[in-house]
Amino acid sequence: MFEIDKVQHRKIAISKRRKIYEALHYEEYAKRITHFFHEWISSQKSDLVVALYHPINSEIIPLSLIQYLDMKNKTVCLPMVVNKKQPLIFKPWRPGEEMVVGHYGISVPDNDQTLIPDLIICPLLAYDSKGMRLGYGGGFYDRTIKYLRRNKRVKYIGLAFSGQKSYHDLPSEVHDVPLDAVLTERGMDYFQQF
Q1: pLDDT at position 81, please?
Q2: 83-116: b (≥16 Cβ within 10 Å) or e
Q3: Taking the chain (194 residues) in consecutive chunks of 10 residues, what is each chunk's mean pLDDT?
Q4: In Å, what is the CA distance from 176 to each residue of 38, 134, 171?
Q5: Which pLDDT score is estimated for 28?
Q6: What sections of the chain are H helices per DSSP?
Q7: What is the C-alpha separation between 31 and 18, in angstroms, rounded?
Q8: Which CATH number belongs to the domain containing residue 96 in this structure?
Q9: How many independent structural domains does the chain possess?
Q10: Could you give the CA distance from residue 67 to residue 97 in angstroms, rounded to a whole number?
């Protein structure tokens, strides 16, 4: 069996995710992931700070989760790139609040506050049964998780379509941080002990 490198995996995964996204019934998907997320988060501490993201390309739109958290009076924050080689920072945000365009054309909250999340929910291109995540290759989430976990056990969950799961191990390097779990329309898949 031949090995496919990360660049080839990304090309395949981007195409696959786009096809899933284009065929998606968003309302049904949003309802399902919110249901499974509610089941999980109900068992967590009440003052949880949750980092989500503003989607680009065919990334899953996490608005239903943001709205759910806002309705439950949970603190939501969104990531912001400061520098290509630095960890992400997180700014609080609620639906309807102003945003500005940040690095890579990604919208970020228009405020000067920063928070340290207890839980980071991130987009991905693909994931495998060991919890390895394939992203765009910038290493932002890996770098951020390692940095934050020096002082705090930050939980790390991917948000995906179930069809994004790779049925063989994804290529990984020593700096790659495995996910604790992945949330899909079929439920939560756990990889690490929560």
Answers
A1: 95
A2: eeeebbbbbbbeeeeeeeebeeebbbbeeeeebe
A3: 64 76 78 92 87 89 93 95 94 95 92 96 95 91 96 95 90 91 94 73
A4: 28, 9, 10
A5: 84
A6: 6-22, 26-41, 63-71, 140-148
A7: 20
A8: 3.40.50.10420
A9: 1
A10: 13
